[in-house]
UniProtKB/TrEMBL annotation:
Protein's UniProt keywords contain Oxidoreductase: yes
SUPFAM superfamilies the UniProt entry points to: Acyl-CoA dehydrogenase C-terminal domain-like (SSF47203), Acyl-CoA dehydrogenase NM domain-like (SSF56645)
Every Acyl-CoA dehydrogenase/oxidase C-terminal domain range: 236-383
Provenance organism: Sphingomonas echinoides
Membership in a protein family: Belongs to the acyl-CoA dehydrogenase family.
One Pfam assignment: Acyl-CoA_dh_1
Cofactor(s) required for function per UniProt: FAD
Coiled-coil blocks: none
Gene3D superfamilies with a match to the protein in the record: Acyl-CoA dehydrogenase/oxidase, N-terminal domain, Butyryl-CoA Dehydrogenase, subunit A, domain 2, Butyryl-CoA Dehydrogenase, subunit A, domain 3
Protein name per UniProt: Acyl-CoA dehydrogenase family protein
Length: 394
């Protein structure tokens, strides 16, 4: 059961998204990849700031809502694909704020976290690398980007891809493998100001999703010099810090896209009740009614899965296994929901007359982002094997 605090915040967020942000869904201010422009984002955030719902998951004293409370609020912000952008609960910023807030020094938080929390800046997390270079994708241990000390600085060299929001970001978190003897093989995380001439945008490919400003860029990092005091945490512990970000971030994705699928289901239900075919409303046809019933079941199960995994994180656990299970279960359930919404609405479902077709595209991408379903299943299978061996050890 959500706390009264979370319910109150979520109610304000939901009212704001439904009343002020949903009308922006037809706003033509989009880049050539179909993503909202920064001008559109800034305008929506100004409304959110005035309504008191900007960055609602972080309280005025800088503390975070619990993960369970965050779920209630982020689901509400996700009722429109534009809602998380307007309320500043969108990836990658929400996850980056969480990481900086938990790991960075007070000085780095003041410099890099404050503008993110205030909605004055966007950020990017530089981890994934191109497959053609055999770089880090779902397996960060394959990282080819390196960092080495040079006096009072670290020098970073490498190539990254699918870096969400890199174009137009002002804050970057870069992961690189250290070549130094005291942290050889370990990863380091660095906070950097963007743009920087040493970070070159090579391309921004068109992708199936269109909700995130800045796209998913491929970048080259060429002799980037970062002051030593911008190292995030300790050298060599980057993989550990990344998990602090990735586990709750996977869950946050589930929260936001659950909100979108709730809305898509609402649209499909409305269509099925109004559309008459073969002498009666579509919903009275068993094939359609059963699809909507299955949606209700999947929506409820997704919400319960999120609540369970959020509770594990709130207990103080890193929640890696639980967030993986939730990512698989929720992303696959939301895909089924989005697909049924399209099917129920027929030809209208594949047009841009509603957000249903966009939700279908975005959720399809979600099954890959933050780790494909198959990678999480593989990781879970390894855990099952380890548990079996431990239980049967002599």
């Amino acid at each position: 059961m959500p706390t009264e605090r979370a319910q109150a915040i979520a109610a304000r967020v939901e009212a704001f998204v439904r009343d002020r942000i949903i009308p922006y869904e037809t706003d033509p201010r989009r880049d050539h990849h179909g993503a909202p422009t920064d001008a559109l984002v800034d305008e929506m955030r100004a409304h959110a700031r005035a309504a008191g719902v900007l960055t609602p998951h972080i309280l005025p004293d800088g503390s975070h809502l619990t993960q369970r409370e965050t779920a209630t609020v982020l689901i509400a912000s996700g009722l429109s694909p534009l809602g998380p952008l307007a309320c500043n609960t969108m990836a990658p910023d929400e996850g980056n704020m969480y990481l900086i807030g938990h790991v960075a020094s007070p000085e780095l938080r003041a410099r890099f976290l404050t503008p993110l929390v205030e909605g004055r800046a966007r950020s990017a997390f530089f981890m994934t690398e191109p497959a053609e270079l055999q770089g880090a994708g779902s397996d960060p241990s394959m990282m080819r980007t390196t960092c080495r000390r040079d006096g009072n600085h670290w020098v970073i060299e490498g190539k990254k891809c699918f870096i969400t929001g890199a174009v137009g970001a002002q804050v970057g978190i870069i992961m690189a493998k250290s070549t130094e003897a005291d942290s050889a093989g370990g990863a380091c995380l660095f906070l950097v100001d963007l743009p920087d001439p040493a970070i070159r945008i090579d391309e921004v490919p068109n992708t199936i999703d269109t909700s995130m400003p800045g796209g998913h860029a491929t970048v080259t990092i060429d002799h980037l010099r970062v002051p030593a005091d911008q190292l995030l945490g300790a050298a060599g512990d980057g993989f550990t810090y990344a998990q602090i970000r990735l586990s709750p971030a996977r869950l946050s994705h589930c929260m936001r896209w659950l909100g979108c699928c709730i809305r898509a289901h609402e649209i499909a239900v409305d269509y099925a009740n109004r559309r008459i075919a073969f002498g009666k409303p579509l919903i009275d046809h068993e094939g359609v009614g059963f699809m909507l019933a299955e949606n209700r079941i999947d929506l409820q199960q997704a919400e319960l899965m999120i609540d369970w995994a959020a509770g594990v994180l709130d207990s103080g656990s890193l929640g890696t296994v639980e967030s993986s299970m939730a990512k698989v279960a929720v992303s696959e359930a939301l895909m089924r929901i989005a697909d049924r919404c399209v099917q129920v609405m027929g030809g209208t479902g594949v047009t841009d007359r509603t957000i249903v077709e966009q939700v279908f595209r975005e959720v399809r991408a979600f099954r890959i982002y933050d780790g494909p379903t198959e990678v999480h299943k593989w990781s879970l299978a390894k855990k099952i094997k380890r548990d079996w061996k431990a239980a049967h050890a002599d």
